[in-house]
Q: What sequence folds into this?
């Protein structure tokens, strides 16, 4: 039985323990930056990935590019982990229906309306981010809230009516929801007329059914029913002219991708692959590369990632002490607000997140809104290890230089005698100047297959007394 002492080393940057990268470091999260071809995948990425595999970790791998799967098959072969790989791809038998999973999983909170609505909202935001621009402005928030309320009410209604909570039924509800002039006549309608209407109109049918299902004793359910019927028979029916079609369109837009292709086949029916199997040491490769599957690839993997993160937070590490990892190349494609929340608890759930992305500017674009920086900073603040490879993005390089910070450097070359005159001869300079990140070695034959990276770990003083370390990674 492996021991999972948090101080166990995963990578040694020298033989001095102060230069070890340990499980404790890994569970605090890692961000790798570097331009295209700088050596993220074949340099630091490969070293970390193989260290995880060698130590028996389970994990989840998202695929931005088609070669990711191949890379992991190779890493697994080299570390004797081939039997633990699970390739979830278009041709595989695996299926994962997020709604069904969320409703039937074990544990407190399973199937709560709130969780399901959040899941839809995350899907909605993923779509928005992918189609350019994360949102976050005042008016976006208005629409977000309107959509969220509508989804909430639909799920509640289906629940009380004991109908299957599925995207299909939600679409049926929306297209049947009564219009203002229809509900106006409701007061004058006979019971029979209402009942007939319910037979031909899915939304009315559900409301009638939900009413019939009510248990007189259950006050909570009665209140919920009032809320729901008020919503569909009053609020939603009388929404201002443009509001209703906008909400309907938003919902149909997020549901649409699940009606065809890989999402329909692998993410909308049943479930035979559970995120929890990674806790037993399996490594799930989500082989739906975004380069190939575009938005569908983002949805498929983004949803699995989110539900994996939530499952990981719920897991009992006494029962399942095995560290697990989340691997996300081109992480800007998969950022979600939940990452930040996840990262704050990742340490106690022993989850090692590794995000790889070209630069910080991509993060800003992906987060969107008028002021994406605080969000990006806060996420990056929670990814303790940072590795910077060669980069031409000034924003990233300046950010890295600033984060590593300044120190007094002797600029005159004159040796400093006593401390009083020292300040005269020294100036405060970046320890690593922004331009130094542009010339780091990025592997390949011309560099003897060596990839250079500047590494920082929050709070770490390396064996040479510095707060950063320039490391070399061999590509083979
Ligand atoms: N195993 C390898 N041996 C030698 N060179 C490699 C190897 N893998 C990739 N390269 C080359 O090294 C450079 C860095 O590649 P890569 O790690 O894929 O960059 P990134 O992931 O940052 O885009 C590229 O020029 C690539 O062609
Ligand atoms: Mg790469």
A:
């Amino acid at each position: 039985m492996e021991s999972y002492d948090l101080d166990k080393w995963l990578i040694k940057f020298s033989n001095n323990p102060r230069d070890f990268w340990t499980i404790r470091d890994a569970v605090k999260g890692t961000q790798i930056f570097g331009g295209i071809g700088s050596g993220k995948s074949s340099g630091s990425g490969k070293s970390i990935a193989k260290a995880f595999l060698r130590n028996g970790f389970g994990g989840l791998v998202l695929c931005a590019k088609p070669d990711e799967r191949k890379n992991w098959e190779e890493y697994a072969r080299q570390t004797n982990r081939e039997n633990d790989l699970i390739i979830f791809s278009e041709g595989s038998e695996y299926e994962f229906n997020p709604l069904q999973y969320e409703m039937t999983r074990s544990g407190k909170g399973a199937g709560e309306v709130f969780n399901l609505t959040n899941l839809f909202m995350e899907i909605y935001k993923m779509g928005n981010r992918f189609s350019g621009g994360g949102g976050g402005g005042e008016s976006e928030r208005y629409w977000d809230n309107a959509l969220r309320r509508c989804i909430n009410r639909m799920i509640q209604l289906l629940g009380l009516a004991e109908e299957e909570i599925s995207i299909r039924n939600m679409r049926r509800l929306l297209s049947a929801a009564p219009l203002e002039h229809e509900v106006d006549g409701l007061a004058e309608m006979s019971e029979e007329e209402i009942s007939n209407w319910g037979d031909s109109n899915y939304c009315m049918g559900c409301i009638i059914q939900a009413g019939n299902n009510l248990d007189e004793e259950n006050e909570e359910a009665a209140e919920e029913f009032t809320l729901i019927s008020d919503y569909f028979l009053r609020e939603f029916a009388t929404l201002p002219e443009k509001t209703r079609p906008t909400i309907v369109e938003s919902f149909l837009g997020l549901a649409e991708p699940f009606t065809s292709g890989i999402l329909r086949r692998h993410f909308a029916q049943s479930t035979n692959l559970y995120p929890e199997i990674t806790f037993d040491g399996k490594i799930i490769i989500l082989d739906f590369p975004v380069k190939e599957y575009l938005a569908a690839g983002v949805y498929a993997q983004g949803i699995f990632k989110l539900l994996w993160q939530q499952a990981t937070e719920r897991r009992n590490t006494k029962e399942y002490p095995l560290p697990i990892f989340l691997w996300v190349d081109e992480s800007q494609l998969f950022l979600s607000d939940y990452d930040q929340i996840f990262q704050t608890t990742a340490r106690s759930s022993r989850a090692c997140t590794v995000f790889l992305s070209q630069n910080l500017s991509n993060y800003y674009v992906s987060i969107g809104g008028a002021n994406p920086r605080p969000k990006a900073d806060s996420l990056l603040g929670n990814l303790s290890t940072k590795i910077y490879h060669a980069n031409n993005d000034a924003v990233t390089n300046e950010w890295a230089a600033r984060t590593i910070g300044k120190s007094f450097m002797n600029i005159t070359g004159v040796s400093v005698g006593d401390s009083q005159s020292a300040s005269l001869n020294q100036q405060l300079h970046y320890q690593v100047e922004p331009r130094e990140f542009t010339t780091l070695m990025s592997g390949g034959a011309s560099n003897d297959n060596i990839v250079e990276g500047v590494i920082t770990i929050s709070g770490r003083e390396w064996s040479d007394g510095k707060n950063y370390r320039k490391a070399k990674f061999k590509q083979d």
Notes: The CA atoms of residues 137 and 370 lie 7 Å apart. Residues 40-41, 329 surround magnesium ion (ligand 2) (CB under 6 Å).
